Amino acid sequence: MSHKKGQEQTLDAKKAEYNRPYLGDELIENEEFAAIFRQRAYAMRHDARELRAQGITLGPFLEIGAGNVQRSAMLMNEFGVDGVATEISFKSLKNAQHVYTLLDFESGPLLICCDAHHIPFLPNTFAFVFAYQTLHHFDDLRPIIAECHRVLARHGHFFFDEEPVDSWVRRMARGNRMLSHPPTRAQALAMKIGVEKLFWDDGEHERSQGITEARFDIDEWREFLRPFKVESVVVNRKLKLRSDLYKPALTAFLSSLTGGNIRGLCRKDNGRPVTQPFRERLMCVDCQSDGLMMQETYIVCPNCVRHYPIEDGIASMLPLEVAQYVAAPIN
Ligand SMILES: [Zn+2]
């Protein structure tokens, strides 16, 4: 399978994502899993407090790559905002119920199984769009960022937190070494102090499962984020290299050398403000019509009459071609 940049995520990669496993009760009973989801939810709480303190409006929100929904649910339950958790893996969304039990949450966001290349909402719908550890699962971020930008309302914010800014220094340090599963003793030690990405991991394990694992250099990030006004970007959690990406500065230069995780806050300055509840702004991903009607067990498009099923509280809104491909049995 080819992973050249500038290509769309392939249907096979979408299928691999769609079929991520259902954890069910194991999510609560397996202490290791439980700890991961608690930690992710608490990290969201920390970030949301910081964003709110900066005056950022956190809702209505849309999360892409919501995984098991711990972050969106945290926003709803502790920050009093409403929104949508989207994710291509249907089974991950099904895990949400167990996450709510684990974290003692009373309610959850609207759950939609969809493809981030085709977000099923009209333009100018959300005040806050965010993604954690998701954007590296696409070969090219331009169409994804364009969708996030489209569904954001005027003055809305896009927030992201991602591992991989790659660099020639990293590629040299890494050579062709891969992280083994289970990790060797040296790798386990490196993971403990957080440098395994520098010396081993370029995502080969996920790639071997058919999941897209891309690594972007800082000049690619600059290009990807162009639709937005970039308010702040921090590269490399350990070194905290603040950079506005576009002005030549020492920090930007250092970021391009060290690579590392990247988190950023961007603003949309055009478009229209939020005017309507997001539930009234669903859009058909096949014919781009509005006026979709949500019933108990399906959502229907008044124009092409496509019926999107709602099962286990999850609306499946993949484009027809993608829906058929990812749900077909794996051979
Ligand atoms: Zn339609």
Q: CATH superfamily membership, which one?
A: Vaccinia Virus protein VP39
**What is the makeup of the main sheet?**
13 strands, mixed
- From the spread of the alpha carbons, the general shape counts as globular
Give the oligomeric state of the chains in this entry, treating copies of one chain as homo and distinct chains as hetero. single chain
Assign the CATH topology.
Rossmann fold
Terminal Cα separation, in Å? Answer: 16 Å
Order of helices and strands: HHHEHEHHEEHEHHHHEHEEHEEEEEH
- Fraction of residues in H or I helices: 25-40%
User: How many DSSP-defined strands?
Assistant: 13
CATH class: Alpha Beta
Strand content: 15-25%
Radius of gyration: 20 Å
Description:
The chain starts with 10 loop residues before the first helix and ends with a helix. The protein is globular, with a radius of gyration of 20 Å. It is α/β, with parallel strands linked by helices and 331 residues long. Strands 1, 2, 3, 4, 5, 6, 7, 8, 9, 10, 11, 12 and 13 form a 13-stranded mixed β-sheet that branches. It has helices at residues 11-18, 26-29, 31-53, 70-79, 90-94, 96-103, 142-151, 168-174, 185-193, 196-199, 204-208, 218-224, 250-258, 320-327; strands at residues 61-64, 83-87, 110-113, 126-132, 152-166, 216-217, 229-235, 241-243, 260-267, 293-294, 298-300, 307-311, 314-316. The protein has a single domain, classed as Vaccinia Virus protein VP39 (Rossmann fold, 3-Layer(aba) Sandwich), CATH 3.40.50.150. Mean pLDDT is 89; it is low at 1-6. β11 and β12 form a beta hairpin. Bound molecules: zinc ion (ZN). Zinc ion is lined by residues 284, 286-287, 289, 301, 303-304, 306.
